[in-house]
Amino acid sequence: ARALTEFYNVFAKYGDSDWGPQAGVRAQQLKTLLETQYGKKVNVDLGAFQTKAAEAQFRLADNLFRQKKYQEATVEYLKNLNSFPETDASVIALGNLLLSYANMDDALMVKMVTSYLGERFAGKEPAAMALLAAGKFYFDRTNEAMYMVEYDTYLKYFPKHPRAAGILFTLAGLRRQTNDLAGATMYYQRIVDGYPKDQFYTKALNQMAWGYFAASNYEGAIKGLTNFIREAQPGPDKAQAQFALGDCHRQLGRLAEALAEFTTVIQWLAPKNNPYATSAADVQKNQELLEKAAFYRGYCLQRIKDPPEAVAENRAQGIKAYDQFIALFPQSKLAPKAMNGKGTIQLELGQFDAAAKTFDDLAAKYPQSDEGKSALFSLVRSAMEIKQYDQAKSAFEKMIARGGYSPDEFVRIGQMMLDAGLYPQAIEAFQQVVTSTQERNLLERSLFGLGKAYYEMKKYNEAIRALEELMQKYPKSGLFYDAKFTLGGAYRETGSLSNAVLVLSDVFKYADKNILINKASVELGQIQEQQNDLQAALASFSRVALLGDPNDAEIRPLVEQSILKCIDLSDQMQRYQDELDSCDQYLKLFPTGAKIDEVRKKKADAKLKAIQAAPAAPAPGAAGGPAAAPPKAP
Question: Which of 2, 354, 365, 503 is the most exposed place for a label (fewest CB within 10 A)?
Answer without folding.
Answer: 2
